[in-house]
Amino acid sequence: MAKKIGRNDPCWCGSGKKYKVCHEEFDRKIETIKNQGHIVPTRNIIKNAEQIQKIRESAKVNIECLDVVADKICIGMSTEDINDIINEVCKKYGAIPAPLNYQGFPKSVCTSINDAVCHGIPSKDEILADGDIINVDCSTILDGYFSDSSRMFMLGNVSEENKKLVEVVRESCYKGLEEVKPWGFLGDMGQAVHDHVTAHGYSVVREIGGHGVGIEFHEDPWVSYCTKRGTDMLMVPGMIFTIEPMVNIGGPEVFVDADNDWTVYTEDGSMSAQWELQVLVTEDGHEIISY
Ligand code: MF3
Ligand code: CO
Q1: 3-state DSSP call for residue 111?
Q2: Which of 61, 138, 162, 175 is most deeply packed, by most CB within 10 A?
Q3: Cβ proximity of 128 and 56 under 8 Å
Q4: Is the peptide bond between 221 and the residue preceding it cis, with omega within 30 degrees of 0?
Q5: Ligand 1, closest atom to CA 210?
Q6: What's the CA gap between 183 and 25, in Å, rounded?
Q7: CA distance 285 to 237
Q8: pLDDT averaged per 10 residues in sequence order, the chain, 291 residues
Q9: Are 192 and 176 in contact (CB under 8 A)?
């Protein structure tokens, strides 16, 4: 239990304003919703204006990484070449690729092709081929602040079936995004994503989800896309998290590659796609921080 702050004390958020004109009413509102039985955010995951600005700066680098990949990606390139692009852009800004050495991850970005769901490890032996669909998941640390987003890329003659998958997973993120607003619930977002994906006959991976991000790489809350409207954590201004559903054409079951202990594949070998937005809850809705 946190020590009670006096109304004239500086606010816990670090704004420098008095508590009574800053987050006092906000805290009271959260307390009421908590007492109704809902999960509410703790203070440490609510970012202040300065932190948000620093996270936006980090995201600028992250967005440029993916923009450069979008520009250069082609058939015949290796996933190691994508890793090189990320390193180069990060270096230009004095940024650090967040995946590198994260829990032993050996590379600077995740590259997941076709039935790879996520956490693919770039390699010079893995060459992009005609018809491939690939997720490039990029995360950047700039001046200690974290950004994280991913996009799909399609190489050459991609089947209509796979194009549709990629389009639907992207759309599902934006359907989810529309639900991101203060005093709503993460489940509003989760259900919107899930409804859109399942309406097209696809399945959503259950075991791996999104996360809070900004001060750390992975913060609370853990974000599911298999939740129901009106459930899961309350969304309040200053929260930053990812919308990053992993969607399979076949069943939702996945397994981890025993050779590298990282790369996740679909159990049935069906194609998988993912899109990821990093989102801020604002006073009146949301802002995309990274894409
Ligand atoms: N963006 C991915 C995530 O949010 C990146 C994982 S980095 C890895 O989990 F090192 F864990 F692969
Ligand atoms: Co992420």
Answers
A1: strand
A2: 138
A3: no
A4: yes
A5: 4
A6: 13
A7: 8
A8: 82 93 96 98 96 98 98 98 98 98 98 98 98 98 98 98 98 98 98 98 98 98 98 98 98 98 98 98 98 98
A9: yes
